[in-house]
Amino acid sequence: MIQSFTIIEAKQKIAAGEITSKALTEACLERIKKQNGALNAFIQISETALKEAESIDVKRAAGGQELGVLAGIPIAVKANMLAKGLKATAGSRILENYVAPYDATVVERLRAAGAIILGVTNMDEFAMGSSTETSHFGQTHNPWNQTKVPGGSSGGSAAAVAADFVPGAFGSDTGGSIRQPASLCGVVGLKPTYGRVSRYGLMAMASSLDQIGPFARTVEDAALLLQVVEGDDPKDATTVAGGDTTVAELISEDVAGLRIGLPKEYFLEGMDERIRTSVFQAVEVLQQGGADVHEISLPHAEYALAAYYIIMPCESSSNLGRFDGMRYGYAASSGRTLMETYERSRGEGFGSEVKRRIMLGSYALSKGYYDAYYKKALQVRMLIRRDFDEVFKHVDAILTPTSPSVAWNIGEKFDDPLTMYLSDIYTISANLAAIPAMSLPCGFVDGLPVGLQLMGRPFGEETLFRLGKHYQTKTDWHTKRPEKNV
Ligand code: GLN
């Protein structure tokens, strides 16, 4: 089935003339038509996708023109990234009818590489959540079992790749929003090093934590997508030059001598035994390849969640100040005073999780509390970073589960924010420490995918790719697809 090809397979088949970009795009659109009603992974499909694919085919047939590395490959983007002409709603009512007036840098680079932006994927409102249940545009369902959540906040992108709607997609990750849904949907998800990928044109959630990254079916595809979008961007001052991903096909799969750390704080009593077993089986595979595995300690890990749930709402509350119903998006009928108009637009436009975080953040930043909460959380963040600096003197990568559980029932944690927040326990440290981290499928529990997380040194993505590629050549978890795909 054409739509099940990996990006690299599809590239090869297109180059060999076995399939056209049009056929690939049509196959994806056909699957979306069949299944998206049930999954709600896409919230908008591009009407020009097929034409764009055709024009790439024409260009290719004519020859003589340089075609980009993603020429004719359909790619999806999360609804908080601007893709000119498509809706950028961030999953919120307040941006219900907002159409992107320009391309985010990531989208611009994807298009320059010849990718076809197939559509926009569903997400938790303003990327706040771990289940894609807070979207104004309805719940996304997990392709492995439609009664389960796909994870979040980039649940639409993860589900779209798992369901064979599209071979690759982009998401954003502030505390785990790429890796956790990748884990729950059984695909690869990468949060690059902070500063490696431009956020220009991404709606900011927590600016010191946000990073854009790819979803794919294989580690090599994820590397290829990173290679296309990474690098310095004058429009995002936090980007740094220096990340030059090796051409995906050339990534070494030799892991002999690589040192891997297992943090004892992550493998505590009470952890789901079946997840532990899957993860330790993966450790064995890497050991057999010659990797050296050690126990390590990240002594401040237990404070990460608390620090994150101060820093993130503080930054979010400030970033969301711009949505006032005046400049763009939803505007309530005007009140008697300007303040009342703002209050109505924001009151009606934002959902309850977003309001909860705006309130938490505004509280923690207010006079008298700033030092006690925000400043303290920043200090804890420093300690967490130092833990990682210290550990990376001795190991090349850190291995953990991505999520403490597999996908849960829709509705199960929705009214219990604290339990929902706890599902981010393994992912948030990488954002606080600004390091790269990747999730890849490593087994199943009750028919639902389990994810393995690899964290690396700043700009150490290559090591993660090596380990991941080795793992995927020795195992076949990443080739499994939900039955409904067939
Ligand atoms: N689930 C986390 C949260 O709700 C992470 C979100 C994200 O990475 N965007 O904040």
From TrEMBL:
<dbReference type="GO" id="GO:0005524">
    <property type="term" value="F:ATP binding"/>
</dbReference>
<keyword id="KW-0547">Nucleotide-binding</keyword>
<dbReference type="InterPro" id="IPR020556">
    <property type="entry name" value="Amidase_CS"/>
</dbReference>
<dbReference type="InterPro" id="IPR023631">
    <property type="entry name" value="Amidase_dom"/>
</dbReference>
<feature type="active site" description="Charge relay system">
    <location>
        <position position="78"/>
    </location>
</feature>
<dbReference type="GO" id="GO:0006412">
    <property type="term" value="P:translation"/>
</dbReference>
<dbReference type="GO" id="GO:0016740">
    <property type="term" value="F:transferase activity"/>
</dbReference>
<dbReference type="InterPro" id="IPR036928">
    <property type="entry name" value="AS_sf"/>
</dbReference>
<feature type="domain" description="Amidase">
    <location>
        <begin position="24"/>
        <end position="464"/>
    </location>
</feature>
<keyword id="KW-0067">ATP-binding</keyword>
<dbReference type="GO" id="GO:0030956">
    <property type="term" value="C:glutamyl-tRNA(Gln) amidotransferase complex"/>
</dbReference>
<comment type="subunit">
    <text>Heterotrimer of A, B and C subunits.</text>
</comment>
<comment type="similarity">
    <text>Belongs to the amidase family. GatA subfamily.</text>
</comment>
<keyword id="KW-0648">Protein biosynthesis</keyword>
<feature type="active site" description="Charge relay system">
    <location>
        <position position="153"/>
    </location>
</feature>
<protein>
    <recommendedName>
        <fullName>Glutamyl-tRNA(Gln) amidotransferase subunit A</fullName>
        <ecNumber>6.3.5.7</ecNumber>
    </recommendedName>
</protein>
<keyword id="KW-0436">Ligase</keyword>
<dbReference type="InterPro" id="IPR000120">
    <property type="entry name" value="Amidase"/>
</dbReference>
<dbReference type="Pfam" id="PF01425">
    <property type="entry name" value="Amidase"/>
</dbReference>
<dbReference type="InterPro" id="IPR004412">
    <property type="entry name" value="GatA"/>
</dbReference>
<keyword id="KW-0808">Transferase</keyword>
<feature type="active site" description="Acyl-ester intermediate">
    <location>
        <position position="177"/>
    </location>
</feature>
<dbReference type="GO" id="GO:0050567">
    <property type="term" value="F:glutaminyl-tRNA synthase (glutamine-hydrolyzing) activity"/>
</dbReference>
<comment type="function">
    <text>Allows the formation of correctly charged Gln-tRNA(Gln) through the transamidation of misacylated Glu-tRNA(Gln) in organisms which lack glutaminyl-tRNA synthetase. The reaction takes place in the presence of glutamine and ATP through an activated gamma-phospho-Glu-tRNA(Gln).</text>
</comment>
